[in-house]
Design a protein that fits this description.
Layout: E1 7-8, E2 13-14, H1 18-25, H2 30-51, E3 56-57, E4 72-76, E5 86-90, H3 99-119, E6 131-135, E7 144-146, E8 151-153, H4 168-182, H5 190-212, E9 222-223, E10 238-239, E11 248-249, E12 253-254, H6 270-273, H7 279-292, H8 300-309, H9 319-334, H10 339-350
Parallel strand pairs: 4-6, 6-8
Antiparallel strand pairs: 1-3, 2-7, 4-5, 7-8, 9-10, 11-12
Helix pairs in contact: 1-2, 3-4, 3-5, 4-5, 5-7, 7-10, 8-9, 9-10
């Protein structure tokens, strides 16, 4: 089925996974435990609301030319949970005195630019969809999410988590869930859900690398660097270069992500471990990008984008299916036996999916 004709099932995805918040909710530190529990309960209610939302079809792109400029609007939720809040910055307006507003505005722009300049895509839906975001959501809300229509950022608790606008890769991660929603529409459970999460990590990292002008060897390959508070022993939420090493903390526990299929986690929590097992395709992408060198969005990113948008990736795809399709995409674009094809074979073999 053509990806543009698939019904869209918008997922509710948060950048901080429920298994991590659940760990904090069992802390002996009452304030941390209470904050995590409130975030978990709020996320669960929103997740349920998404499940009962009527499925909508994806409209085809309009015949008229689409502008190459984004249409961004940032709102201030005022520490409430009613969205979107008060409009505080529209497209083309000067920066405000609120750093969260300005970072959100810049992150929306960076995401739009990478998809446009790197892949010729006009916004999330490839039809110029306006990009909306709300900041200062809730009280001490320890998360950020894409709700199927817009971005939402909490301020964090100032202890374990800082303001969720501080990491441009987090912004890119969540918006890429929208790109997946409008293309392959990967189901948010099991291996297809882990692929959904991995796509967001891949393009979130590429957005950061693009905005900083970094090559693959210069990138940190971290998701959420700068997001963890000074009390946390860790550097980020996830590492694509070395899954399982992003944090090892008394409150957060140890990063549970595997880098290969030997460590694949079978679990009923977190929709079948979507935030955990995503470390495997994440690591495969890191290997491909490192093998090819240069700017990761130019070849490695192009292969992943072709696979996501090519129309053959099924909503219930598993890791093996994605490995096969992405290798075929590399051959289709760059030819058989070249550096790209060899990098793909090496990467998927290295993670146990050769």
């Amino acid at each position: 089925m053509d990806a543009t004709l698939r019904p869209s099932h918008p997922v509710f995805c948060t950048v901080v996974p429920p298994h991590l918040l659940d760990r904090i909710a069992r802390s002996g530190h009452l304030r941390r435990a209470d904050t995590a529990q409130r975030t978990l309960e709020h996320d669960a209610a929103l997740r349920t609301r998404r499940r009962i939302t009527t499925v909508r079809g994806i409209a085809p792109a309009p015949a008229a030319p689409v502008s190459d400029e984004p249409e961004r609007t940032v709102y201030d939720a005022g520490h409430r949970t009613r969205l979107p809040g008060t409009k505080v910055r529209a497209e083309g307006e000067e920066a405000t005195g609120d750093a969260s507003v300005n970072r959100a505005y810049a992150g929306l722009g960076a995401t739009y630019e990478l998809f446009l300049k790197g892949f010729g895509r006009h916004s999330i839906d490839d039809a110029g969809l306006p990009l909306d975001a709300s900041v200062h959501y809730g009280e001490d809300y320890d998360n950020a999410f894409w709700d199927g229509r817009q971005m939402v950022f909490g301020d964090g608790d100032g202890d374990l988590f800082l303001d969720f606008t501080v990491s441009v890769d987090v912004i890119g991660h969540e918006l890429t869930h929208g790109v997946t929603q409008y293309t392959a529409n990967l189901e948010y459970r099991g291996q297809s859900g882990a692929l959904n999460e991995s796509m967001s990590d891949v393009f979130g990292s590429l957005i950061k690398q693009y905005s900083l002008g970094q090559t693959a060897d210069q990138a940190d390959w971290l998701i959420g660097a700068g997001l963890l508070g000074p009390a946390v022993t860790g550097v980020a939420l996830r590492s694509m270069k070395a899954p399982g090493t992003a944090y090892d903390d008394d409150e957060l526990g140890k990063d549970p992500q595997p880098a290969t299929m030997d460590g694949y986690v079978t679990t009923h929590s977190d929709n079948g471990g979507v935030h955990i097992n995503s470390g495997i395709p994440n690591h495969a992408f890191y290997i491909v990008a490192s093998e090819l060198g240069g700017k990761a969005w130019e070849r490695a990113g192009r292969i992943w984008y072709d696979t996501l948008t090519g129309g053959e990736l099924a909503p219930d795809a598993d890791f093996a299916g994605f490995a096969r399709l992405s290798t075929a995409a590399a051959v289709a674009r760059y030819g058989e036996g070249g550096a790209e094809h060899q990098a793909m074979q090496k990467a998927w073999s290295a993670v146990g999916l050769g």
